[in-house]
TrEMBL record:
Protein name: Dodecin family protein
InterPro entries recorded: Dodecin (IPR009923), Dodecin-like (IPR025543), Dodecin-like_sf (IPR036694)
Pfam families found in the cross-reference section: Dodecin
TM annotation in the entry: none
Amino acid sequence: MKNAAYQIMELTGTSTDGVDDAINNAILQASKSYGTLAWYEVISTGDVIEGQKRKFYQAQIKFGCHAH
């Protein structure tokens, strides 16, 4: 990361299959929107509950990509 500048953003991914899939969905969408990511970190995870059952998983990520 020598002499580099990064743009930092956050995005929340969702999945009905699990937290890992929610993270992957967030990374995929971020890559489609912003190009190659330099790094990411998981900020939080959560679930949406409906009728006493987990409806889907959420994962909020913070990610960095090279500033243009």
